[in-house]
Write a structure and sequence with these properties.
Layout (H helix, E strand, L loop, with lengths): L2 H11 L2 H12 L5 E2 H8 L3 H13 L3 E6 L2 E6 L1 H12 L7 H11 L13 H7 L2
Antiparallel strand pairs: 1-3, 2-3
Length: 128
């Protein structure tokens, strides 16, 4: 990730509705959510949500997948991992032990490819 991509991601998340949308999609990984369900849960008009989804997608934070007649939106957890890595690249003056607690906190959110993300907390968040 470069500075321009990081700025685009932060700019996309620097608006309350988009941040709420992104957090909701993160909570519903890996299955994703259709736009109508996102709009209903967040009480956002469909046309407004469409604009927000487009901004998040252009920033590389979410992706859409067509499944039959539905379009499911998903958070790109790899983008979250890249953004966190970009921020923490030179963390703590080369003393990784200082950043270890922060990195450990990110592990359940952004596991390496192939790891199970369906923790009890994630299941609970999806059923709110």
């Amino acid at each position: 990730m470069d500075t321009d991509n990081a700025l685009a991601a932060f700019a996309a998340l620097a608006q309350s509705t988009r941040l709420d949308v992104f957090r909701l999609l993160v909570a519903h990984e890996p299955e994703g959510m259709p736009a109508g369900e996102v709009a209903r849960r967040l009480d956002v008009p469909h046309n407004t949500l469409s604009t927000h989804l487009g901004i998040l997608a252009r920033a590389g934070l979410i992706e859409a997948e067509r499944q039959s007649r539905l379009i499911l939106y998903r958070a790109r957890l790899d983008a979250v991992r890249e953004l966190a890595s970009f921020i923490l690249k030179d963390c703590c003056g080369g003393k990784p032990d200082i950043c270890a607690p922060l990195i450990a906190d990110l592990q359940p959110c952004c596991p390496a490819a192939g790891q199970n993300t369906d923790t009890p907390a994630a299941k609970e968040a999806r059923h709110v």
